[in-house]
Specification:
Blueprint lengths: L2 H5 L1 H7 L2 E5 L4 E5 L2 H9 L4 H21 L6 H6 L3 H8 L3 H46 L3 H13 L8 H20 L3 H21 L4 H13 L6 H21 L4 H15 L3 H10 L8 H14 L5 H13 L3 H12 L6 H13 L6
Antiparallel strand pairs: 1-2
Helix pairs in contact: 4-7, 7-9, 8-9, 9-10, 9-11, 10-11, 11-12, 12-13, 12-14, 13-15, 15-16, 16-17, 16-18
Length: 363
């Protein structure tokens, strides 16, 4: 037996792995230690992948051996030295073997730790994606679904401290609950939640300027506080609203709600009262201007991306045609709007406007 192995047998036991070296066959076999086995058990779902990586490590070791000086020499054969002694002489004794072994041990643990880290990160990502998928489904549900969604988001706040995808969703959910409270007649609670949703969405924008949904919901919530702001503040906020919606469209042009909101801005500017236009003129050298035709183009763009399914957008197409005195076209679009079921508070408001406009219908 090699002097190295005799002197270091306890060391190998402490390191928790066995190494067998057959010089003639150049075969190396590693047996994973108890602590590695424990890690493997924790990664039971990934055991097949883990075993593959261990095999790759063996292949690396084999390659390393092949690149080293030849194991055999005529001197060793003729002198009667054992294989282990010839190996020790060829590689400078125990120092080479010891450091070579530690390098491989370190490499194994590095690979194992990296694997564990990747698996934990993938598991975390899967859980996050599942959570957000569930949240997004509830956004489109009933009022009870939206209230449950709000509670679910609040209860998971600590998990998503630095995740912009969480914060814009919480802003959206808070806004939805504000509309529910308004529909119940609780105006004080509605106002409180509206301002809270604006602050949440603003935080999301600050967290990631390239998040389209953060910009969109900041614009929506900023517009929603207009009911509680002065005319001058509403006009100032209107410019900020447009800036963030245009940024949202730039980042995500395929989202129909972004185009709808830009249409709402154009329609709102077109419908400004004389007093509001005068107020805008005192604040800005060039007050905002728009037309019903410009607003219509954005609403039609939104419908093209989500055809015939959005009650409020269909209503606004009808309203634009009404402003353009095209009553036949208005009637056609309002008929489409009426066919969409009422689900949300916004749908209820839209239905009321549709009914009021239908007295101008032309068949």
């Amino acid at each position: 037996m090699s002097t190295f192995f005799r002197n270091h047998s306890l060391l190998f036991g402490g390191l928790g792995a066995g190494i067998i070296i057959g010089v003639g066959g150049s075969v190396i076999y590693f047996r994973l230690a108890t602590n590695v086995d424990r890690e493997l058990r924790l990664l039971s779902e990934s055991i097949a992948s883990l075993q593959k990586e261990v095999v790759e490590l063996k292949e690396k070791l084999a390659t390393r051996r092949k690149r080293s000086p030849a194991f055999h020499s005529s001197t060793a054969s003729s002198s009667g030295e054992t294989d282990d002694e010839a190996y020790e002489d060829a590689y400078g004794g125990s120092d080479y073997e010891f450091h070579n072994f530690l390098d491989l041990q370190t490499e194994i643990h590095t690979q194992m730790n990296a694997k564990i880290g990747r698996d934990e990160e993938e598991k975390k990502d899967d859980e996050t994606n599942t959570f957000f998928t569930d949240v997004d489904k509830l956004f489109d549900g009933t009022d009870d679904d939206k209230l449950r969604n709000y509670e679910m988001l609040l209860n998971n706040k600590e998990k998503f401290t630095n995740d912009v995808e969480y914060w814009w969703r919480l802003a959206k959910s808070t806004y939805q609950v504000s509309q529910i409270e308004g529909g119940r007649g609780n105006q004080k609670k509605k106002k409180q939640l509206v301002y809270a949703s604006k602050d949440l969405s603003q935080k999301a924008v600050a967290m990631d300027e390239k998040c389209a949904n953060a910009h969109k919901w900041f614009a929506i919530t900023l517009g929603s506080i207009g009911d509680y702001e002065s005319t001058q503040e509403k006009i100032k906020n209107g410019y900020v609203f447009k800036e963030h919606i245009e940024r949202a469209i730039q980042l995500n042009p395929s989202d129909p709600s972004n185009h709808h909101l830009l249409g709402r801005w154009c329609y709102g500017v077109y419908m400004l009262s004389w007093i509001e236009r005068k107020a805008a003129a005192t604040l800005f050298a060039a007050p905002p201007t728009s037309t019903a035709e410009e607003a219509l183009s954005h609403f039609l763009e939104a419908d093209g991306l989500n055809p015939g399914k959005w009650k409020e957008n269909l209503l606004y197409i009808g309203k634009c045609y009404y402003q353009m005195s095209k009553y036949k076209e208005m009637t056609d679009w309002l008929d489409k709007a009426m066919s969409v079921p009422v689900i949300s508070q916004d749908d209820k408001k839209a239905e009321e406007e549709i009914q009021s406009l239908m007295k101008y219908q032309v068949r």
